[in-house]
Design the sequence.
């Protein structure tokens, strides 16, 4: 028996208030636990440093009722933070939010989807091999500098925006939720606050990837109903388990052939889920077509400045943006990858 | 009657003289019930009363010297029973593949190298004890790159720094040569040169190595996760200064072997010593991270090949230089990457050189198809390059240069007393059906539909087909091919088969039970296999190198036959016939010339004295120098390449393997599937990723060491090619391990056929393919 | 499990159901469910291949869903239902159709991934008695096999589900 978990205190919270109260004690050495699929591994690997503690107390929040609810309201849905991804996949939301269904279905493995939660997925830590290695005390752990810089950075590092950290955001749910214009509801000692998800993530100059404070937790997400066509594409090394090399979450509401409302968010390319605003602006109001799609894909990666060994991600990201837009706009990608125009674009009200 | 060629000592058994009733049937694995019910106890499942937990402190540096080590605080912790370090183990050596290593050296030569071992009452105390060991390291500059190593002299050794084996093999070129390559190249119409680079691959056995050692004052019992019990016993006894008779090694279930577990390894020695010191059983179990760090894995290698041929396709010359990154120590084969180039094709002029460089990467060791997957990848891809240059079908090119004989004997793979092998021999094979493997593979994949030239259009997603072939000599050339088997027939009509083998999952115990049952003429349920324990069995080789079926098989056959002949004496008296005219089949003993004169096997057995079962003994004889014993295979793959995403999808695979006789066809199929997992991973996704600055291993986990999943595994059609090989039990050759040898080459050749791009650097991950595509676009 | 005073204070009482039986224990919260099953209950059928939720050999059912027991704390399994490979065989020792099919189709070699594979498939068949080949593959997309048993595991599960469906019709 390996017994690799460090010594911990474990409590179960029955209410949000209780959970927040635990978080506020213990000087920042308490963390919430729902699925544990990222947290427990980090703890067993002793990922820590002067700026990153291994939690001493874990607060299980699975039993808090609000965190497990999926509620349909007049203008949108509320999804509890601790809803497991597999439940998200099979819930009624699938029909209304194909993007969520597709993204959730490509996270990890069956077991991970049974255990892992929606909030856990967007709050997961980087997949940089140096961050995950106990001997490299990088910026994110309170050390100096970035070891990926002159070292290994082929798969899970940024091609857009760098700071002291070169990571790329590994979450699949984050681009999808962002493309669906989700808000996160956070609970802290002072009560609740609602943060649009686009303001939830920080850049490569922050030791944490989100703006969540040490005594705060996500309680739920709110998503407005969407009339957009949606698609999530993810490319990775294997056909399961692996994190995205690049992912694209795209939602376009068409009015006849015109793109009335466009969201394109990329994962795996920047320290945060990357809103391709230049591409979105380029498409808005215009009729979808082959040339425009090509230009939009270029625009999406216009600001890319890849690292020495991850330049391939630029091409890969452009391809995925293009394919996503083809799938949404023209629905005609041949098995051999050739794009063909499909003039019979079906209408959506 | 022709003289039997079966490789046994003494009188070979008479031929079976009838069709098979069990051999050739896909019966169920004998140990399947325990495995599917979870009752199979692997070494890490074994718990003994009073058992202590052992843990190991490992060096975090690729190269460092221990300036100071103080274990007093660890020893003082309540619940700690022993601490071992260099301070109290001077002169102690452990052995792996008979390679001696200082148990706890002062100078550490790889990340993960053992610094200390503790035994405590529970894992928490053991972890705390490790944390209390104070070590001051003097960090030394490591050598990580083999090419770089060759360009400068080796650093002077510090303290007791050692790279076991390097005195013999380090930086020494081993050369296979015949004919005159200069002349050969001069004669060539077409010459192709290229360089290949292959990566570190890990075994990735799902079980991490674990052992329990129990010293009771006179006997050391070790439950281990090893592929061999007798060789483990030998080296443990040597290491601990014990009489081998007082060492018992037990391995009933093994959660994956694939090579480097052929001998017990460091943790078995540490656990045994800790048990001897504490007087309690000690379990040591490696974490997955430790498994990546400390289990000797496949070497990385860089190979340059130059080949020349006439325009009709006949090869005139091959030269090759391979540099192997050996790591800090190895079970090294000095010609492992050049042997195949010398033997797969009949080329009259060759000059092949392999150099091994010892570095501060982790030890390397046998990893499924250790001699040939790396070698075959570069050789068989290069062959396709030649064919492309010649405008010839690669399959035809292979047939044109088919080698009907072997040019070297197998023991050259392990010979150390020379560095140049230039005797050209023409040793016939005991059986070689490679041509049939290639033909059947090509037929099944639909080779005639293969594109004659790659698709260079702008279509993003392309398909292509590629193939590769291979050969490997049996048993890694290891002498003396000794193996014993014992059969005892009891009064109740059942028979014990005692064989000192480990069933590593390839089905060894079932296969030998089938051979014994067939020879005796009884049902499989009447055989009780005693295996996996040095008590109650006699020497058999470790289950590696596909050697067990060809080495132990004949002994089993002989033992069963001898027991049967003795039983026939009894039956002969009962039937009033001559014993030599009797046969047995399906539980009946009968007269060959008149089968109606018969008696049930069990009825004959009733005459056996319960205190004296009828015994038969079998003993393998060494391989003769002539013929050459080898297995062969060919594989063809159809791939789909997405040039815009770098994604490679394997559409289907056909794999034909020459097994001699497939004792159990579904086991053979399973071996082919297993090989493909290794080959596909090597080709497309698996690699050890190291930090270039510090040399530390960055992906010691299954998250970032990407082994093929069920979602990646393609439809695969195994084809078993059978043929006669009278040297082995019922013609059954060993063929399980090397089923992965042709895979990477077949995949890379298929990628070329699809896209026109040669991938010379494994694994072919999306980033590399996209970069190659981009580079090609730039050139145009 | 021994431990020092501080960790004794952290110990928690839990009750859970394992293979249909109620189990009570007092454990260190750091103990994973896999460790609890193997060390406290002697159910060593569940394996720990990586201890990081990356290989699947520790797969058990938690309230009917397949999970990585190495990445679940035992305390978080409190008041829940756990099924392990030992629970597949019935009280009389009769094998589950999945187990029988695995044996028939040679869906195992070294056997170390087998318990995890069986449990992942059980979770599937319990919810979806007529799974397609795609469903079956997805059910074990989180289970690694190094010996190459994927094709046979898939065909074994197809065969088992067909047998169970026929049996249901007959019964």
Sequence:
């Amino acid at each position: 028996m390996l017994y690799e978990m460090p010594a911990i205190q474990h409590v179960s919270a029955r209410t949000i208030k209780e959970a927040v109260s635990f978080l506020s004690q213990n000087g920042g050495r308490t963390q919430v636990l729902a699925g544990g699929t990222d947290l427990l591994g980090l703890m067993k690997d002793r990922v820590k440093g002067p700026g990153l503690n291994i939690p001493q107390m874990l607060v299980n929040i699975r039993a808090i009722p609000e965190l497990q609810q999926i509620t349909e309201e007049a203008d949108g849905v509320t999804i509890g933070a601790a809803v497991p991804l597999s439940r998200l996949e099979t819930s009624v939301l699938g029909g209304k939010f194909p993007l969520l269904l597709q993204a959730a279905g490509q996270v990890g493995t069956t077991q991970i989807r049974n255990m892992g939660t929606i909030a856990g997925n967007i709050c997961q830590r980087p997949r940089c091999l140096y961050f995950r290695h106990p001997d490299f005390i990088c910026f994110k752990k309170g050390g100096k500098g970035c070891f990926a810089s002159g070292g290994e950075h082929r798969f899970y590092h940024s091609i857009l925006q760098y700071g002291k950290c070169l990571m790329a955001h590994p979450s699949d749910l984050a681009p999808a939720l962002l493309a669906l214009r989700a808000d996160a509801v956070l609970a802290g000692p002072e009560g609740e606050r609602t943060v649009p998800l686009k303001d939830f993530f920080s850049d490569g100059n922050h030791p944490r990837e989100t703006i969540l404070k040490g005594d705060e937790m996500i309680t739920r997400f709110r998503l407005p109903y969407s009339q957009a066509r949606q698609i999530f594409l993810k490319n990775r090394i294997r056909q399961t388990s692996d994190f995205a090399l690049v992912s694209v979450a795209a939602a376009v509401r068409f009015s006849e052939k015109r793109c009335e409302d466009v969201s394109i968010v990329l994962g795996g390319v920047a320290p945060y889920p990357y809103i391709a605003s230049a591409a979105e602006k380029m498409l808005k109001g215009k009729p979808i077509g082959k040339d425009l799609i090509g230009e939009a894909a270029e625009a999406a990666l216009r600001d890319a400045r890849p690292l020495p060994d991850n330049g391939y991600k630029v091409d890969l990201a452009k391809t995925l943006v293009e394919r996503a837009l083809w799938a949404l706009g023209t629905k005609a990608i041949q098995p051999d990858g050739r794009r063909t125009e499909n003039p019979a674009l079906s209408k959506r009200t | 009657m022709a003289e039997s060629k079966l490789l046994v000592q003494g009188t070979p058994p008479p031929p079976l003289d009838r069709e098979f009733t069990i051999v050739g049937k896909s019966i169920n694995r004998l140990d399947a019930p325990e495995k599917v019910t979870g009752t199979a106890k692997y070494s890490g499942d074994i718990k003994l009363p009073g058992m202590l937990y052992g843990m190991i402190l490992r060096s975090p540096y690729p190269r460092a010297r221990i300036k100071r080590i103080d274990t007093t605080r660890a020893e003082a912790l309540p619940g700690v029973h022993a601490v071992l370090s260099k301070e109290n183990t001077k002169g102690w050596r452990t052995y792996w593949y008979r390679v001696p290593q200082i148990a706890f050296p002062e100078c550490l030569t790889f990340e993960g190298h053992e610094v200390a071992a503790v035994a405590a009452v529970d894992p928490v105390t053991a972890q705390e004890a490790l944390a209390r060991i104070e070590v001051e390291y003097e960090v030394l500059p490591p050598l990580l790159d083999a090419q770089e190593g060759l360009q400068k002299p080796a650093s002077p050794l510090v303290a007791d720094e050692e790279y076991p084996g390097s005195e013999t093999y380090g930086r020494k070129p081993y050369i296979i040569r015949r004919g005159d390559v200069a002349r050969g190249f001069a004669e060539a119409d077409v010459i192709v040169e290229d360089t290949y680079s292959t990566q570190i691959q890990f075994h990735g056995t799902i079980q991490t190595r674990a052992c329990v050692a129990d010293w009771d004052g006179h006997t050391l019992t070790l439950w281990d996760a090893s592929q061999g019990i007798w060789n483990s016993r030998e080296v443990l006894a040597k290491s601990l200064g014990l009489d081998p008779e007082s060492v018992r090694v037990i391995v009933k279930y093994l959660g994956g072997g694939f090579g480097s577990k052929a001998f017990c390894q460091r943790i078995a020695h540490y656990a045994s010593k800790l048990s001897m010191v504490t007087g309690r059983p000690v379990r040591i179990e490696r974490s997955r991270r430790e498994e990546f760090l400390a289990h000797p894995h496949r070497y990385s290698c860089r190979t340059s090949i130059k080949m020349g041929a006439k325009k009709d396709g006949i090869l005139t010359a091959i030269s090759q230089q391979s540099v192997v990154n050996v790591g800090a120590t190895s079970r090294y084969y000095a010609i492992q990457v050049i042997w195949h180039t010398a033997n797969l094709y009949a080329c009259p002029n060759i000059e092949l050189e392999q150099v091994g460089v010892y570095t501060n990467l982790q030890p390397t060791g046998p990893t499924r198809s250790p001699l040939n997957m790396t070698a075959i990848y570069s050789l068989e891809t290069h062959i396709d390059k030649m064919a492309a240059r010649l405008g010839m079908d690669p399959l035809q090119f292979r047939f044109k240069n088919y080698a009907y004989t072997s040019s070297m004997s197998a023991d050259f793979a392990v010979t150390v007393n020379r560095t140049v092998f230039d005797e050209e021999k023409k040793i016939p094979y005991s059986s070689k059906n490679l041509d049939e493997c290639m033909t059947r593979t090509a037929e099944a994949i639909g080779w005639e539909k293969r594109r004659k030239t790659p698709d260079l259009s702008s279509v993003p997603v392309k398909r292509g087909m590629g193939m590769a072939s291979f050969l490997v000599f049996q048993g890694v050339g290891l002498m003396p091919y000794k193996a014993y088997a014992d059969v005892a027939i009891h009064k109740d009509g059942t028979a014990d088969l005692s064989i000192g083998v480990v069933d590593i999952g390839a089905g060894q115990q079932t296969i030998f039970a089938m051979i014994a049952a067939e020879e005796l003429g009884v049902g499989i349920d009447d055989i009780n296999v005693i295996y996996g324990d040095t008590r109650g069995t006699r020497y058999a080789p470790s289950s590696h190198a596909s050697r067990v079926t060809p080495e132990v098989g004949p002994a089993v056959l002989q033992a069963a036959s001898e027991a049967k002949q003795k039983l026939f004496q009894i039956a002969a008296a009962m039937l009033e016939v001559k014993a030599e005219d009797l046969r047995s089949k399906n539980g009946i003993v009968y007269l060959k010339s008149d089968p109606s004169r018969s008696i049930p096997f069990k009825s004959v057995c009733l005459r056996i004295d319960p205190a004296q079962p009828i015994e038969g003994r079998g003993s393998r004889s060494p391989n003769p120098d002539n013929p050459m014993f080898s297995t062969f295979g060919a594989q063809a793959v159809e791939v789909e390449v997405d040039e815009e995403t770098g994604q490679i999808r394997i559409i289907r695979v056909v794999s034909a393997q020459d097994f001699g006789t497939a004792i159990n066809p579904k086991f053979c199929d399973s071996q082919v599937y297993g090989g493909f997992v290794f080959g596909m991973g090597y080709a497309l996704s698996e690699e050890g990723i190291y930090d270039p600055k510090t040399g530390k291993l960055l992906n010691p986990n299954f998250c970032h060491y990407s082994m093929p999943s069920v979602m990646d595994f393609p439809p695969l059609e195994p084809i078993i090619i059978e043929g006669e090989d009278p040297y082995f039990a019922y013609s059954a050759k060993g063929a399980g391990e090397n089923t992965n040898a042709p895979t990477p080459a077949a995949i890379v050749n298929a990628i070329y056929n699809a896209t026109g791009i040669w991938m010379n650097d494994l694994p072919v991950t999306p980033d590399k393919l996209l970069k190659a595509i981009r580079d090609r676009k730039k050139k145009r | 499990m021994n431990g020092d005073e501080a960790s004794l204070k952290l110990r928690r009482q839990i009750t859970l159901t394992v293979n249909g039986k109620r189990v009570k224990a007092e454990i260190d919260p750091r103990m994973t469910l896999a460790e609890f099953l193997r060390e406290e209950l002697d159910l060593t059928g569940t394996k720990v291949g990586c201890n990081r939720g990356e290989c699947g050999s520790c797969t058990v059912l938690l309230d009917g869903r397949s999970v990585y027991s190495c990445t679940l704390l035992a305390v978080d399994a409190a008041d829940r239902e756990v099924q392990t490979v030992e629970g597949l065989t019935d009280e009389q020792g009769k094998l589950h159709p999945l187990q029988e099919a695995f044996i028939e189709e040679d869906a195992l070699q070294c056997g170390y991934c087998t318990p995890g594979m069986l449990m992942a498939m059980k979770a599937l068949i319990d919810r979806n008695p007529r799974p397609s080949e795609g469903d079956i593959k997805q059910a074990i997309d989180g289970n690694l096999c190094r010996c190459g048993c994927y094709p046979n595991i898939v065909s074994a599960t197809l065969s088992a589900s067909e047998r169970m469906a026929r049996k249901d019709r007959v019964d």
